[in-house]
Structure prediction request, 415 residues.
Amino acid sequence: MRAESEKQDKSICIFHVDVNSAFLSWSALKRLKDQPGSVDLRTIPSAVGGDIKTRHGVITAKSIPAKKYGVKTGEPVVQALAKCPQLVLVRSDFTTYRSYSHAFIRILHEYSDLVEQVSIDEAYLDMTGVQNPQEVADRLRAEIRQKLGFTVNVGISSNKLLAKTASDFEKPDKTHTLWQEEVPGKLWSLPIGELHGCGRATARRLGSMGILTIGDAAHTDPAVLKAALGNKAGTYIFESANGRGSTVIHGQAEDAKSYSNETTTAVDITRDNYQKEALPIIRYLSGKVSKRLKRDGFRAGTIAVSVKTDDFKRHSRQRVLAESTDEEDTICRTAGQLIEDLLLSPEGLFAKGHSVRLMGVGALKLDTGEFRQMNLFDYLKDRKAEQKKAKLDGMMDEISRRYGENALKKGIDGT
Ligand SMILES: [Mg+2]
Prediction:
């Protein structure tokens, strides 16, 4: 059992893609576009943030040359200018940032069907099943550089924590791996404060106990860490210092015609744990889809589910609804029936010996509220007409039967 789960974990591959000095790079690109021939902000000491005129506020991003002067993200502009008087300051520009961010995420979707965006400039990709991750990551970096003009770092590992840590290694425009077996060599020598999720106060507290590196924490009795930091934080520090982290990726996709939410699952789903593991995921995903439909004023005429099996193949099912919906309960009930059919039926995937590591729920054939109301109104009108007609037909039959074919004609003539 254990050997099997270890084998499965090895096959999981996650990328963390992070734009290098995102705001500064994007401001630099915008400036080059607006003022062709002007200096590239990335090549001089420059920073985004604060109020340019009053020189108040803090630095939100800096160029690599500015970093060499000791300019730090989050420090007051005044302090940064004291360190580097020639620092060029630019205002933040979220309209530009959002459009670069969209273009960036769009490219990521070409590399994986499961992309979890975690902030404006970073995302996790499920790359499980990819043959040569390093090569694919290098290709992804090159494509972003060539098409969009800025650089990213890619971190590769078997969980999110290690992938994120890896993407933070040497910058810019680099791919790094941090597989479980590389943890002792690449992670343990780093100061404890560099462990993702270890705040400054926690680092100080651990430092006072003689725990200075991530390796020190990895080799400390978890009971000692729990006693010092509390159960939750103590467990987190111990587990993550040993390179263990979540492998669950929540993705979402939408285009003009459909919305879908997908997630990798924490454990492989089989017939045995179906009730316990799969049903809450279906509920969760249906809730997400329903919320997005309601947010945008759409209803779905078709519900779809999809799963990825242990051989990395995708399977899906869909069903047309009698009436379009945005309700979580209806979406969930339909998705549940479809998943059951896909997995549990006699010809289903479980019967074929597969397990499942990704599940998705989608909404297709979208219509808007007004359109649906109009349809419903027409439908009711038609139905009333039909009922009237049926009633009339019935009456005519009755009259004909009682009084003969001609009786009704006479009656209608009113004579
Ligand atoms: Mg970044």
In short: The chain has a mean pLDDT of 88. The longest helix spans residues 369-403.
